[in-house]
Amino acid sequence: MFQKLVNHNDDIRRLVEKGYAVAFDSNYLVIRDIPYLDDQNKLQMGAIVSKLIFINEVRVVQDDHQIFFAGHFPHNIDRTPIRNLAGGPTQLPLSEAAADVVVQRSFSNKPRDTGKFKDLFEKIESYVAIISGPAIELYDVSPYTFRIVDEVSDSVFNFHDTLTSRAEITDLAAKFSNDVVAVIGLGGTGAYVLDFLIKTPVREVRAFDFDKFHVHNAFRSPGRVDSSEFDKPKAEVYSSRYDNFRKGLSLLPKFIDASSAEDFDGVTFAFVCVDKGSSRAGIFDLLLSKGIPFIDVGMGLNRKHGSLNGMIRATYYSNENGRRVRDKGLAELIDSPNDIYRNNIQISELNALNASLAVIKFKQLRGFYYEEIPEYHLLFDIGDCRTVGESEI
User: Fold this and answer.
1) pLDDT of residue 15
2) Which of 32-46, 132-146, 340-354, 362-376 has the lowest mean pLDDT?
3) 77 in the same domain as 14
4) Are residues 198 and 94 both part of a single domain?
5) Count of Cβ atoms closer than 10 Å to residue 215 Cβ
6) What predicted TM-score, i.e. pTM, was given to this entire model?
7) Range of the domain at 252
């Protein structure tokens, strides 16, 4: 990736050719070996970090005129703080590959004439002149070290995750790095669960569905629909939609029951998105026997009042309390001729909402989202748009 960016971005190439210790991490440009003076006139080395905006796979532009700085506040030779460096103390978590770069503050200094830097080369040159000028004069040092920093990238995505870097949540996204997540059932809700997980940096996503993709599926399915997809296995359809987006994706046209233990070796979490009670029972037995925590989703809609009404459900089965939660009967485990699910009324926005509740709960469990009350059972009532939950088992 380093060479691709250098080859396709003239401003980055110029930084490398001039001798800056250029590296990339979590979609940031990192310039190490930046000399500066502390308040005791001692020589220190810092690093400049600047956000990158990817306009395609290999072309980048600067985000704005600001930078992040790993180091103390730089000073002049007379030990006064350098002026015209607005900003303040801040933190910016980077990946383990850049553990030596500990961001402590941000700086803001616009070009006086234009208010905007022409490119990254002009931006870095300007900040280095301000930050390093006194150190260069006093110690005859140079920021041009020509040092090569090995790039280590273990991203599961085939595109740069600029959403994470722009939002400055790299440390939170890293909480999913060891997860292998299974999605059982790729109907309306399961398809949206898959879509959300595809864009989450879990190490691997495994999905299973034995059924074929029909026209009605297209009306509660995320993404572009092509008529050639009809009557193909759902696993094949969704695999073709997403295999260019990320690595670690395995979608199989397979029916999952208690005999499918090998398919779940190494799985750390699962989503159960099936609508038959008997199928759900066998899947529950499998996951509980293997000690895999999971979330089961369900939807029940009716027309008792003319307009559609009903409930959306997401229930969490932990390693510790999964069997007790199952025994509470919150999810149907048998097939009933009067089962509300047999009406098969499902609407895409409700499928997406059901999937959202489930995935948000999963991300709360991993510490990505804040959770005030650890509820294991969530119900959303369509009639009043209220969510209620249970936290005590």
Assistant:
1) 94
2) 340-354
3) yes
4) no
5) 11
6) 0.73
7) 178-390
